[in-house]
User: Fold this.
Amino acid sequence: MKNILITGGAGFIGSNLSLHLLQKGYAITVLDNLHPQIHGDNPDKTSPIYQSIKEKVRFIKGDVSNKSDWHSALQNQHIVVHFAAETGTGQSMYEISRYTHVNVQGTALLLDYLANEKHHIEKVIIASSRAVYGEGKYFSETEQQYYYPKDRAEQDLQNGIFELRNPNNADEFLKVVATDEESKIQAKSIYGLTKYHQEQALMICCQSLNIPCVAFRYQNVYGPGQSLSNPYTGILSIFSTRILQHKDINIFEDGNESRDFVYIDDVVLATTAGIEKEEANFQVFNVGTGTATSVLTVTQALMKNYGIEIPLAISGQYRKGDIRHNFADIQLLKNILGFTPNIDFETGITKFCNWVKAQEIQQDKYEQSLAELKAKGLFK
Assistant:
């Protein structure tokens, strides 16, 4: 059976993928720096996801921005799954150097190795993101044409108008539709920009080297095992912590902004199909459910599952650079990989909440993260 290196394999998606591939008989090596923002200061005690793979995989504590760590990890590997990255759209807007160094330079070191060293690598998988699109795809019913809006007007946001207008007719609000892989790329965060750079650098280099590669543009991945202490990614974790501490929640905009929430088990199965199927080679896939769920719906589902009602402040505040809507067109995933997500949001959120109930309540760092954004002029 093949040897697989998973960078960031102690993270949320990486650890779940590691365990699944182990069950299928693959030999797994994980390269991960166990960043305190995700794993806490003592991963042996504070990181359930790291503990879930510890002593089950060959583990290398190292950094993808370190050339020697790549060289150690890549020895005798057949497949590389490159998940290691700095994640968080808001934080990326004021820690630009760190995000660029890890995400762009880290990937460049991998590609340098593939181009210049003797190796046995047969395939590379990269984790991209729906953040590459910025706003999703929209449709004008009056003009019967599609739009890819770039920015919402600052004046509209200040006046509490959050939906996207037709740029040619300010009286018409556009209708959001599923975003397909051919949609316009216009990242609105440094994080999204680095993800697009990663996937495209991989495609260019791997095609020239004749090494099959696959990029997955993941939507909002959630489920048991995700970090409950990282205030920069994942409203499910952030809101869960506040609900369990009976703290009120600040709902940005009007609460009707929406995302595509895809359950971790479906993400693992889709990624595995990309690893194993030749049809996936040199393709870019959206991975989501194809269903939009509003922030208000998410919040109400969490309170229902926890049996706790807390005040919701629908504040009209907004983060600069935030998008309004984005959900995936997953037809390519279905047609080429024959994969359809199995777990709907209601089922998935129940599984997630049941897991959270068994965890230790985490320190709430959400207000601290908002203060950082506000100090940088990114939160209004």
